[in-house]
Each structure stands twice: as C-alpha cells, then as structure tokens.
UniProtKB/TrEMBL annotation:
Signal peptide: none annotated. InterPro entries: DUF1684 (IPR012467). The lineage of its organism: Archaea, Methanobacteriati, Methanobacteriota, Stenosarchaea group, Halobacteria. Gene3D superfamilies: 6.10.250.1680. This is DUF1684 domain-containing protein. PANTHER family: DUF1684 DOMAIN-CONTAINING PROTEIN. It holds the Pfam family DUF1684. It comes from Haloarcula salina. Residues 7-23 have a biased composition (Basic and acidic residues). Transmembrane segments: none annotated. Residues 1-38 are annotated as: Disordered.
Length: 181
C-alpha cells in the first residue's frame, strides 16, 4: 500500500464516521425529522494536490478580528498565526484564529474560495488544525483541504457560525473537502 493509498483510506474512514454521526447522533446538525432520509454528505474526490505544507508565522500579540455570524451576531477571534503556502502554482495565505478564552493549540481556519456558493456552502468552509505542540515562526504544518467542512449552520438554522473574514478569501477554486449536492 502506498502512502497515498493509506492517506485516502484514512480520509474515507473519516468521512464514513462523520456520515454516521450526522445520521445517528443526538447532536447531529441534521434536524431529527430529516435524519431517516440522510444518506451521507457530498464530498469532492480525495486529491493529494490539496494537501499542502504551510509555513507558520506566529503573532505574539494577536490582532482581534470580529467575525460576522450566520445569525447576525459578531464573534471576536484572535488572529494568532498566518499560514503561507503554494496552491495551484501560486503563493497564498490563510489566517489561523482562536477565540480569546481558548487555551488549546487548535487553529480555526475558516475560508471562502471560488467554489463558495456554487459547489460549496455559501457561508464558506472550515478547517481545524491541531498541532501537537505550540507553533513557532517558520514551523511547517500540513493544510489538508480534503478535510475542509461546512459548518453546522449549513444544515440547520439553529446553529450560529462565523463567516470567514475577507482576509481568508482565496482567489482559486478549492475542489476538495465537503461540497453541496
């Protein structure tokens, strides 16, 4: 088995697990009355070209960013890192965020791209990166757009989800991760 085969198998297993959660779990964003007809999320085919290495720039004094949400509120995040990477032959950047009270290492990376509102959810998609240690300037971290997902508000109005700030709008089509039917 090649490295790509093992990666694809893990990705497919992750997708199967998520589909089961959406179909069966009490905390699923799919409304209870729609779960019986739920037959899984739609995804772009796995594509290793959308698995890229990003160089991290850590912001020791993060700027506050107010993100609008799907229910009209705003939520304050801290811009804690900038991720620089090449995609489709171009240098690109995405910002990584945390909420002020969040003590975890998880980076929240919401983004929009040229598929937003057409092939993917109109409010954008998310990635969460979970480094195993505190990041430092110059560290490399993998951005796997195949793991990009639609927020829960894509499935139910009972959820409030932040919209990606304009700084995280990519000028390319990212045909990886979750998509709409």
């Amino acid at each position: 088995m090649t490295t790509d085969d093992a990666w694809t198998d893990r990705l497919e297993a992750n997708r199967d697990e998520k589909d089961r959660f959406f179909a069966e779990h009490p905390q699923s964003p799919v409304p209870p009355e729609e779960r019986e007809d739920f037959d899984g999320l739609a995804y772009f085919d796995p594509d290793p070209d959308y698995r890229v290495e990003a160089t991290v720039a850590v912001h020791e004094t993060p700027d506050s960013v107010d993100m609008e949400t799907s229910d009209g509120r705003t939520v304050r995040y801290l811009h804690v890192a900038t991720l620089s990477f090449d995609l489709d032959g171009e240098a690109r950047e995405l910002h990584g965020f945390r909420q002020a009270a969040d003590e975890s290492r998880t980076l929240f990376v919401p983004f929009r791209d040229k598929t937003t509102g057409q092939q993917t959810y109109e409010g954008g998609r998310y990635m969460e990166l979970e480094p195993d240690r505190d990041l430092e300037d110059g560290d490399e971290i993998t951005l796997d757009f195949n793991l990009a997902y639609s927020p829960f508000c894509a499935y139910s109005d009972t959820f409030s989800c932040p919209y990606p700030p304009e700084s995280n709008w990519l000028e390319t089509a990212v045909t990886a991760g979750e998509r709409i039917e």
